[in-house]
Amino acid sequence: MADLLLLAVDDRRWLIRQLFGHDGPPQAGEQPFVTEAIRLVLDGLVPAAGGRRETGLVIDHRLEPGIGEWARAHRFQLALPIALDAAGDDDPGPEELPDLLRRYRPDHVKVLLRHDSVDRAAPETMRRRLAETCRAAHAADANVLVELRLAGTDDGDDPEPAESTAAAMRALGEAAEVDFWAVPPQAGAAAYRMLRETADEQGAECLLVTGAGRGIAVLEERIAQAAGEGFSGFAVGRAVWWHALQELHRDATTRSTGLAEITERFAACVRSYRSAGR
What we know:
The chain is α/β, with parallel strands linked by helices. It has a single domain, classed as TIM Barrel, CATH 3.20.20. Helix content is 48%, strand content 18%. The protein is built from 10 helices and 8 strands. It has helices at residues 12-20, 31-49, 67-73, 97-104, 121-139, 162-173, 189-201, 216-228, 238-249, 255-275; strands at residues 4-9, 55-59, 77-84, 108-115, 143-150, 180-183, 205-210, 233-236. It has an 8-stranded parallel β-barrel with strand order 1-2-3-4-5-6-7-8, surrounded by 8 helices. Helix 8 links the parallel strand 7 and strand 8. Helix 2 (31-49) crosses helix 9 (238-249), helix 2 (31-49) packs across helix 10 (255-275) and helix 6 (162-173) runs parallel beside helix 7. The radius of gyration is 18 Å and the shape is globular. The two termini are 13 Å apart.
């Protein structure tokens, strides 16, 4: 498969909480800024992509209902995020997925799940539900990108044990046809190599998921290291866009300055990936 370089704006609850201090949907007076903020991120990505088809966006469709048309107009790959929850509280629910696939026609479905190897019932439940999601996505001509987290770890950006992550990839991959494994930062080159080799065994690719509150310099180092071990791309998040949105919300910057910051931060990630010979 070709490289896949993604910018992620997929945690709607986090964004609304940070901007407005609550966990519900945006209120009437808040929605205009949400729309403005998402448009800033999208417009910042365009020049950073430089027309390259491998660039993509992971975005919650509720943040920008017209994202499908926008992505196709700019020749971006679109990844639709969903979360599988061990308790069955999926977001969106399985009954919503077919309609979302029809409406947005994504290139990828990005599945966030936590693998729990201790709870005996949880792995089998997650394997079954991941397999169902993969079948639905593939039937809609979308790839499946699994963002794998280990149960008991937080949602930060710290390294997770490579051996445990590789074991989870094997356990889940036995039941589901995964196209991309999106894994968190690792402790070093050997760990990245182990995960890439595990993906190779399944005919899948590996992406690095990073950028939750880290500086761009840290992201650049991690991306280059993963790329050097054969990773096929990355998904970077709020380290690229959150500072610009925060400053815009406080009226501490202009739109043009915020847009330039987002463009340069994503472009820096791309340069780091290319510096490893990818």
